[in-house]
């Protein structure tokens, strides 16, 4: 079987059917049926309209219809037409040279084409090569609004036939802080150049136009600004309401102020702070017989006061021990000494039963000073409690300064602690240390029932009479109540000699008729103390107080009185000395 082509060089287009004329001669001695096909082009198809039958020695020209695949690359290719007889297994081929024409094609798309974002956004550009030649793709800008920047990544790439590539379109808009969204239309063009190997003159250009929409949102939306403005307005209203309520409370509760003549004898603070709620109490006893001692001035000084820090004289080098007094007294101008006294923030004078109260002080650390002309006769065992479930003990065994830590919390109620001190059970004349045992009674504290024992390093000043058992109580209370009328010590902190009429009733009569009587009893120091309670001062105002001690009368004029929240009960405690009374 012989085969030949009428034209062995032809030009074909991809995916376009073409007819070839093939001459076939049957050289066999038998009748044979032949089959024709095209080889060398994967995906190519061939078709004969009928199945030819050739007799021995017969020649016939057969039309063969062929179609090249669309992916067939452009350029020259060597193919063959093959003849396969049915009677024998021997096939014959005829060479065919085919020039494939370039057929570039490109598909471009952006999805999504509309985006709503902030100042920056990205559009994905997809390019597909649907032709038979490589494409050099270059995306370009056509028209964009002012202030909008566009960049491509990458800005140029090559695609082989029937391949897909991607480029990122990065868009950056102008500043848009507040307001509505800005809409930016973007016109782009994708240009591709086809390249045919061996045929540079066959280069073609493909263009595809795209239109994108970039909706730029404002950085701060209208609802966000409205919410912020509403919150700011509510905050301002709350602050103004708080300040107004605070001013109203301050104006509605005016603290008691003494007349100018008694200002030096009164409290050291002009008004009582509203957030204080600490009360410290104690007892002053005589070291000889354990009896209460009246007229002892108790001063509370702030431990953080720089004047209370130990210092040394720059000239002599001698250390000065800080003193807690009513206020630093100026020394003589010729003296080289520097006043190291710390100013007391609160004070009190022990009553006839030896008790004293330091009221309405803020939480903090304090030094306590017990001052008396007969200080050597004092024995001041005391105890203080803190609300941190920790027992803080300070047991003074001698007159002087003692540091006290006071802390509190408004959500805790007041607690009372009983302290029992047993100085000695034997009769002795030698100094004996004082042992103090304290048991806290709050069941909520984990360490409440653990007794603490503290023995001072320094012994007591002198022996305590044998077989004497002393019991002292003290307390620290928290409360939101505010004391309007308070107790004040005498001017010099030391009661003077008892005026004539010792032991007679002491009567205090304000002009509205309220009065009370008490017996001023002398103590070991030679001073007498009486405590009077005036009931009936229901109307705020100014009063003249008359105090009679024996045959002598003292007058305190123009005292402003504000009952406040204590139901009109006004308490005066004084020690008459040199015609001076203290409230």
Automatic annotation (TrEMBL):
InterPro entries: CarboxyPept-like_regulatory (IPR008969), Ig-like_fold (IPR013783). The keyword Membrane applies. Residues 419-517 are annotated as: Disordered. Gene3D superfamilies: Immunoglobulins. Coiled coil: none annotated. Keywords: Membrane, Transmembrane, Transmembrane helix. Residues 468-477 have a biased composition (Polar residues). GO terms for biological process: carbohydrate metabolic process. The keyword Glycosyltransferase does not apply. Residues 419-436 have a biased composition (Low complexity). The chain crosses the membrane at residues 223-245. This is Carboxypeptidase regulatory-like domain-containing protein. The lineage of its organism: Bacteria, Bacillati, Actinomycetota, Actinomycetes, Kineosporiales.
């Amino acid at each position: 079987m012989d085969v030949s082509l009428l034209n062995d060089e032809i030009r074909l287009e991809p995916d376009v059917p073409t007819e070839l004329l093939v001459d076939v001669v049957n050289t066999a001695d038998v009748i044979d049926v032949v089959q024709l096909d095209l080889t060398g082009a994967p995906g190519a198809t061939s078709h004969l309209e009928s199945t030819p039958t050739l007799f021995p020695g017969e020649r016939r020209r057969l039309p063969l219809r062929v179609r090249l695949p669309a992916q067939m690359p452009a350029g020259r290719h060597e193919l063959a037409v093959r003849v396969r007889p049915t009677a024998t297994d021997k096939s014959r081929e005829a060479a065919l040279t085919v020039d494939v024409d370039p057929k570039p094609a490109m598909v471009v798309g952006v999805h999504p084409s509309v985006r709503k974002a902030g100042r920056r956004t990205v559009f994905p550009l997809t390019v597909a090569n649907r032709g038979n030649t490589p494409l050099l793709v270059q995306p370009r800008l056509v028209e964009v609004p002012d202030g909008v920047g566009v960049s491509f990544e990458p800005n140029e790439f090559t695609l082989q036939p029937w391949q897909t590539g991607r480029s990122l379109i990065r868009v950056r808009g102008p500043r848009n802080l507040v307001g509505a969204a800005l809409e930016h239309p973007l016109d782009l063009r994708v240009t591709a150049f086809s390249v045919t190997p061996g045929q540079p003159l066959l280069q073609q250009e493909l263009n595809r136009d795209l239109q994108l929409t970039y909706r730029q949102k404002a950085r701060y939306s209208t609802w966000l600004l409205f919410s912020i403005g509403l919150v700011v307005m509510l905050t301002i209203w709350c602050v103004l309401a708080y300040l107004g309520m605070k001013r109203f409370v301050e104006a509605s509760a005016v603290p008691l102020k003494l007349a100018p003549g008694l200002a030096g004898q009164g409290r050291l603070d002009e008004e009582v702070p509203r957030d204080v709620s600490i009360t410290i109490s104690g007892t002053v006893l005589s070291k000889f017989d354990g009896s209460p001692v009246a007229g002892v001035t108790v001063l509370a000084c702030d431990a953080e006061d720089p004047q209370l820090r130990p210092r040394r004289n720059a000239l002599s080098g001698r250390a000065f021990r800080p003193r807690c007094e009513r206020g630093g007294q100026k020394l003589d101008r010729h003296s080289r000494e520097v006043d190291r006294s710390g100013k007391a923030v609160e004070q009190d004078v022990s009553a006839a039963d030896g008790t004293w109260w330091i009221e309405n002080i803020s939480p903090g650390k304090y030094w306590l000073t017990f001052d008396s002309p007969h200080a050597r006769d004092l024995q001041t065992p005391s105890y203080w409690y803190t609300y941190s479930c920790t027992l803080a003990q300070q047991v003074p065994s001698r007159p002087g300064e003692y540091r006290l830590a006071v802390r509190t919390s408004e959500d805790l109620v007041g607690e009372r602690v009983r302290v029992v001190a047993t100085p000695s059970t034997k009769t002795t004349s030698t100094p004996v240390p004082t042992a103090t045992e304290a048991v806290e009674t709050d069941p909520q504290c984990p360490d409440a029932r653990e007794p603490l024992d503290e023995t001072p390093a320094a012994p007591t000043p002198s022996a305590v009479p044998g077989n004497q058992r002393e019991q002292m109580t003290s307390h620290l209370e928290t409360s939101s109540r505010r004391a309007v009328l308070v107790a004040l010590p005498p001017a010099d902190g030391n009661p003077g000699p008892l005026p004539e009429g010792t032991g007679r009733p002491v009567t205090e009569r304000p002009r509205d008729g309220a009065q009370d009587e008490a017996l001023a009893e002398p103590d070991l120091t030679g001073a007498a103390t009486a405590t009077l309670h005036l009931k009936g001062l229901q109307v705020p105002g100014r009063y003249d107080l008359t105090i009679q001690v024996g045959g002598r009368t003292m007058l305190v004029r123009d005292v402003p009185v504000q009952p406040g929240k204590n139901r009109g009960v006004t308490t005066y405690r004084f020690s008459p000395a040199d015609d001076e009374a203290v409230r």
